[in-house]
Amino acid sequence: MKKLLVYLKGYERETVLAPLFKMLEALFELFVPLVMAAIIDTGIANQNRGYVVRMCLVLVALGIIGLVCSITAQFFAAKAATGFSTKLRHALFAHIQGLSYTEMDTVGTSTLITRMTSDINQVQSGVNLVLRLFLRSPFIVFGAMIMAFTVDVKAALLFVVTIPLLSVVVFGIMLWTMPMYKRVQAALDKILGLTRENLTGVRVIRAFNREEEERRHFSADNETLTGLQKSVGRISGLMNPVTYVIVNGAIVLLLYTGAVRVDAGALTQGQVVALVNYMSQILVELVKLANLIITVTKAIACGNRVQSVFELENSLKAAGKQDSQKGTKTGGFGQDACATVQFDHVCLTYAGAGSEALTDIDFTAKAGETVGIIGGTGSGKSSVVNLIPRFYDATKGSVRIDGLDVREYDIETLREKIGIVPQKAVLFKGSIEDNLRWGKEEATPEELWKALEISQAKEFVEKKDGGLRAQVAQGGKNLSGGQRQRLTIARALVRKPRVLILDDSASALDFATDAALRKAIRTMENSPIVFIVSQRTSSIRHADKIIVLDDGRAVGMGTHQQLLENCPVYQEIYYSQFDKDTVGQPVAKEGK
Questions:
Q1: Over pLDDT 90: what percentage of the chain?
Q2: How far apart are CA 216 and CA 237, in angstroms?
Q3: How far is the C-alpha of 472 from the C-alpha of 437, rounded, in Å?
Q4: Residue 581 — very low, low, confident or very high, per pLDDT cuts 50/70/90?
Q5: Confidence check: pLDDT of 359 > 90
Q6: 542-554 in b/e burial notation, b at 16+ Cβ within 10 A?
Q7: Mean pLDDT of 171-191
Q8: Do the Cβ atoms of 294 and 174 come closer than 8 Å?
Q9: Helices 269-310 and 49-97, interaxial angle, to 10°?
Q10: How far apart are alpha carbons 392 and 10 in whole angstroms?
Q11: Are 15 and 131 in contact (CB under 8 A)?
Q12: Could you write out the DSSP letters of every residue in 102-125?
């Protein structure tokens, strides 16, 4: 949590002025009981109405000055707290964007969303309250005790006993509840993850009629969270009644002692009222301090959780300047075309996995070649292509572009020249043009239409009202699956990549559109190396090289005809989709 305070830099003036004005307000508040004592002992006792009126005007003036100081302090505290949270949120978002897939997989999306929203909001509230009350409340407590000594030393000794007793209660409950709030936040993470999962997969849940089961699952987790919150609430709830009992008990003793001393002539009635007022001020401020400590406890727990995200280091180490320059000068991305992509006995093990996802993958792809990757579900097809743009790093062996290990390239330079179309077609809210410019921000309209033409999306875009300016709903929900896939392919093509990766990105396209897409890609001017990951042999049968994966191993490599002759796994996949008597025709078996 302490490390996060660096984001208060730039708000030094506000962090000083906010508590300063609060203490000024407290200072004026401490004079109120003395004025009240003077009104009772001098004005009322002597029936001096003029004096009473003057003192009442003094009380009004003290109130107005205190209000101005309070508003000013609130302004500076709010400005510092919101500025702090804004800078913190920006820094956290930038840090998360810099994490690799490995860290994303480990931490989880719901956890990161909680850190960005709920946790930072709690930290912001904590900073705001600390700036306003953290110095004011102790100042009032000890100030009231000192002022009580100026009224009567013997009666004020009761303050010396009451304040430490209250401190034990307040700080004891704080230390008790702090670890419990951490468990509450962890349970909240779980609820948010389940909620996100249910909202994302609502169609699947309804399709399989699993609403009741998901409700029970949510209710069980929600009951766990509720139980934790009740437990910590019961303990935190002791704060106010216990402090009230102690302070009111002290007031009773104070009134009794004051009455005895008034009868003895050692105290005046006004002084007793002043002492009671000071004790009441202590009660109010300690209740505020107790609530402050609860909020600060939550804020510290949330701040530590935010800090834990900052402490996550990207497992993909960026290349130094020398390496980056070397990667540019060596060729490849510094030239018009990428010459080779080479996998040199590559193995990959995901974080926390017990076995390798890829084992001894070894092949070379040259400029202008199309490499097809096929295999059963979970065979490692996506894992292979994810190593090229360094979404993950090989645990053994190396992936080289133009003879240079991808780990020696600057990551931004590496990915700028690679066009990636992931399995899930993801589009963002905005126009079609806005989505395409993710590939190349400065692309001309001619380049956009050319990419749409190659991706076979031009026809349906032209028919839409507004053409390129036609609006896309969040996630592309107002488009069909095939339209979304073609637009994501166009987005990758806009940048004219040196390496084009199509990760099962034509699964929603019909055979004719798929064939037209592959033909158009082969005629691209910049002759990229194309990797096509597919479940359909029709999509990769014309590739220059086909890699057949089975359980993370390359069990076959060659052309379509070669694999049909000598690779049993490829034969099984192919003949499950085509009749043995069908020669080169994309006619699926009946029932397939």
A1: 32
A2: 30
A3: 14
A4: low
A5: yes
A6: bbebbbbbbebbb
A7: 80
A8: yes
A9: 10
A10: 38
A11: yes
A12: HHHHHH-HHHHHHIIIIIHHHHHH
pLDDT exceeds 50 at position 586: no
Sequence-separated (6 or more) residues with CB below 8 Å from residue 525: none
AA letter at 408: E
Question: At what angle are helices 49-97 and 12-38 packed, to 10 degrees?
Answer: 160
Task: Tell me the domains of the chain and their CATH numbers.
Answer: 85-310 (1.20.1560.10), 323-417+497-577 (3.40.50.300), 428-486 (no CATH)
Are the CB atoms for 577 and 592 separated by under 8 Å? Answer: yes
Considering the chain, what is the average pLDDT of its residues?
A: 85
List Cβ neighbours of 402 (8 Å cut-off, separation of 6 or more): 330, 331, 332, 333, 338, 339, 340
Task: Provide the greatest CA pair distance for the chain.
Answer: 120
Q: Which pLDDT score, from 0 to 100, does residue 338 have?
A: 63
Classify residue 36 by its DSSP letter. Answer: H
Taking the CB of residue 310, how many other CB atoms lie within 10 A of it?
15
Sheet containing 340-348, strands listed edge to edge, beginning at the edge strand earlier in sequence: 404-405, 396-401, 340-348, 358-366, 553-558, 545-550, 370-375, 529-533, 499-503, 418-421
Q: What is the mean pLDDT of residues 514-519?
A: 88
Q: H-helix or E-strand containing 431?
A: strand 430-431
The CA distance from 133 to 29, in Å, is 14
For 15, what's the count of Cα atoms within 13 Å in the CB-facing half-sphere? 15
Unique residue bearing structure tokens 């490849």: 332
Mean pLDDT, rounded, for 220-240: 87
- Residue 279 makes CB contacts below 8 A (sequence gap 6+) with 144, 148, 159, 162, 247, 250, 251, 254
Distance CA 455, CA 459 (A): 10
535: closest CA among 564, 502, 561?
Answer: 502
Paired with 401 in beta bridges are 341, 404
Question: Tokens standing for 264?
Answer: 């003895």
- Distance from C-alpha of 280 to C-alpha of 497, rounded to nearest angstrom: 73
| Cβ-contact 152, 261 below 8 angstroms | yes
